[in-house]
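so im writing up the methods section and need the Long-chain fatty acid--CoA ligase record in one place, dumping it here so i stop losing it
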Amino acid sequence: MKYSPTTLPDLLDKGLEKYTDSRFAVTKRNGNWIKTSKIEFVEKVRNFAMGLYELGVRPGDKVSIHSENCAEWIICDLAILSIGAANVPIYSTQPGDQIKYILENSEAKVHIVSDEEMFAETKSLIKDVKNVKAIISIHQTKHKKLKLFDAVIKSGQKYAEENPELFDQLKSEVKPDDIATLIYTSGTTGVPKGVMLTHNNIASNVQYSLDRLPFEEERFKGENVLSYLPLSHVFERMIDYMYVAMGSEIYYIETIDEIRDDFLYVKPFFLATVPRLLEKIQTGVKVRGQEFSGLKKNLYYWAIYRTEEYDPEHPPTGLEAIKHKIADKLVYSKIRDMFGGNLSGVVSGGAALSPEVFQFMNAIGIICVQGYGLTETSPVISVQNPGNMRIGTSGKPLEDVEVKIAEDKEILVRGPNVMKGYYNMPEQTAEVLNEDGWFKTGDIGKLDDDGFLYITDRKKSMFKLSTGKYVAPQNIENKLINSGYIDQVVVIGYQRKFCSALIVPTYDNVIKRLKRDRYTPEKPYSKDDKVRELIQKEVDKTNKELSPWEQVKKFVLLEEPLSIDSGELTPTMKVKRSVVKEKYDEEIESMYQEE
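--- predicted struct ---
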């Protein structure tokens, strides 16, 4: 298709025409599902926009949102965009000092928070942020400095009545090249950078991504879709814009801990996810078979092991197709029921999806595609779709998105989705974006003869052993995590003779496995010999698939998982390798003492 530049409000307005008046979004709050109709949504967007205008927000100004996913998030977002201002999203898990930095760096004029609890961490810091003129709370609060969301809507409604043409006038003046959002990269190194994305950047990405859907666009109209990734991340936000463009009712869940129950309630048709959820699902399915015995157990694992040979590009035929149907009836259909029985497609992004998980999801009858992109590319660069689902790739680049591989194997991208630059950081912008519009992704990869894009590793993650061999740690880590007994891994080896690893076992599964052998480990589990023996077997299995220099020769077990709160993970769950290496320096050195 030939894309015509547009603004996000215009794009979403067309999508809203596909909804009935009573449908739009549903938010889970305190265990209850709260419905927001299309009529309510449209009215609140207009009135909240006018409320912001009355507070002094003008075209080009910045408004930040610090909230969990909910219908109000989308209302605030579209209201901000409709008056020509830019949305500055902040993760609900973002530390207070980073929030202060983002508010100051972005020059946000208004700050929107979810509630008093979320505001608490920044309350003592925000008083020094002079550019913030008003703070709005989405939910009820007794805090005197916070304006209520409903109160801003009420005053905005009055303002709109007094100025009936202003909202439409402001919306019509928004241009495709205007900045729609400043998204601050989570920053595995250094301070966060504000990525400037225009309306055209994101709208073009929505339109071209619609062309790669695993089903006809009309199939999504009226279907339920589930949203659990943070809207502050460009991946989920762009996906939600796609949902609106297609007329799907969006269900915002409350906590990932309840997602199993939410699947059964929502019965979603489609889901955007990161690999971690799919990895946990696959691990859970594998371990579940241990509860069975005899013929039932044998049949279960016969079906599960068949998924390892499944190739969606070349589905089974003949006798193998018959075997697959039997496996589907006996096992795969039961797994699909865990997702509500209606889940037909999944798109995975944010990190590399292992071939094993990719094959598993497609084999059990849920079309699973992998995409690749960055915040700076709005985000999708390439994505698989039926007919273009080669194992180990992220599909082919979107239409109008050019990809080439530099001499040092870095992936370079050019297209309508590439950011305008980093806010107030011309030098950092020049480092990654040249005059010809080519953006340096910082990822290593290759294009095959058919145009499929392979991602090998982050350029900064790769390291050289003292032997001169280069190692891509993510490849090793993904293989290890595919074990049902390993939760997190960080591979070490820069300027060392061999690779080692810090491993966080999936202790629940490890304990269940050892109890079947009539052994119950005691805390600290990381020091238990039997636990270590079990993990050693998993490491040995993975080493057989690796080159000699990639093999993990030694490892240390960690008792507690890496987390955002401890500073070891970014808000998007990426490992801060430098932080981890510094924190566990003693454990790392213990693995190399013989050197």
